Amino acid sequence: MENKFRVSQILVSKETQKVEKIYAVNVKGEPFDLLEIGVLEHFKIVTKEQIQEKLKQHQIKATFINNGYRTLLTLHSKEDADLYIEHIGPYFNEVLL
């Protein structure tokens, strides 16, 4: 399946070398963060537990961050980011117009 977004920027922390943001844009050019999985939970596309299972299945190292009503991920490496975009990213197709 072709994604309804393209990745525009991956932000890596200078201190930790972890991926903190994966900015993408939809076909209309509207930006969003692929690591904000709360969006997927809100629209009942996938649960946090299902994402955890997918991360484990594809050996993607990540840390969950609960920030109020938002659930974010930090990925441990650029390689983890590439795997995340490939295996978790397509879930965002369900919420993009």
Q: Could you give the topology of this structure?
A:
Layout: E1 5-12, E2 19-26, E3 31-33, H1 38-42, H2 48-57, E4 62-67, E5 70-75, H3 78-87
Antiparallel strand pairs: 1-2, 2-3, 4-5
Structure description:
There is one protein chain. This protein is α+β, with helices and mostly antiparallel strands. It contains 3 helices and 5 strands; from the N terminus they run E-E-E-H-H-E-E-H. The longest helix has 10 residues, at 48-57. The radius of gyration is 12 Å and the shape is globular. The two termini are 15 Å apart. The mean pLDDT is 93.
Quick overview:
The chain has three helices and five strands; from the N terminus they run E-E-E-H-H-E-E-H.
Q: How confident is the prediction overall: mean pLDDT?
A: 93
Structural class: alpha+beta
Outline the low-pLDDT stretches.
none
Cα separation of the termini: 15 Å
The helix tally amounts to 3
